[in-house]
Amino acid sequence: MALTKTSLQVSGVTKTYGQDNNAVRALEEINLSVGEREFLAILGPSGCGKSTLLRIIGGLVEPSSGAVMAGGREIKEPGADRGMVFQSYTLFPWLTVEKNIEFGLKEKGVPAEQRKETAAKYIDLVGLMGFENSFPKALSGGMKQRVAIARALANDPEFLLLDEPFGALDTQTRSLMQELLMNVWEKSPKTIIFVTHDVEEAIFMADRVVVMTSRPGRVKEVINVDLPRPRDYHIKTDDMFLEYKRRAVELIREESIKAMNT
Ligand SMILES: Nc1ncnc2c1ncn2[C@@H]1O[C@H](COP(=O)(O)OP(=O)(O)OP(=O)(O)O)[C@@H](O)[C@H]1O
To answer: Which Pfam families match (predicted)?
Structure first.
């Protein structure tokens, strides 16, 4: 994808949790520009600060220094411009699929009829027709994450921030969910920032993959994934795909070895 305007800018972001002897340096000098409607993956070894970076972008965690700018404003707190999806299922168990998806709209005071219409649109987009009135406990993990994606999209955010959203799913479901997310993104273009430690997942979906170092997380390398779209699973055996994968595996391996030796 040709990069359009910058929609989000991470400048000199550093994060230290705790103080003195208990201080943990999670992130060090992160600089990153994210293009409008770009699909960006953040890839790195466990504990390198990926979630911390995403939470800072989401406005859930404050950086120790540096700033994140979106739409000309510094991010200081969560906002309706940023929808988030986490690995753990975060649906409201007492609400049906439809009501979960409508939740943010109701908070905003959108009238009932319009809420229902919007929910129906996203239920269709994530393939959950017929499950409108089901409760989360009756859904599989993949279905719950589809509801979570639909719920985030229903608020029409500019950014969709996903933190290992398919991490708890089996391999087959995970692979189908990757295709579903790309499909949703192509039909409802947003800027996506997707955190994962899965090399194949990152290259399969993203326009660019930001590979992070082990803790403290820094940007080690940015891989431009120049593979045609739309993509489906066949591309995973393509020579170019395998070349990107080899490069990313090499980078992550270097970092994992470093982390083991410190
Ligand atoms: N609230 C917190 N208080 C103290 N330390 C924290 C906190 N959150 C994260 N950390 C530490 O910061 C470092 C980075 O954590 P983070 O969860 O951002 O990494 P990650 O790359 O997302 O890890 P994983 O892939 O294992 O989920 C880790 O050493 C972690 O223990």
So the answer is: ABC_tran
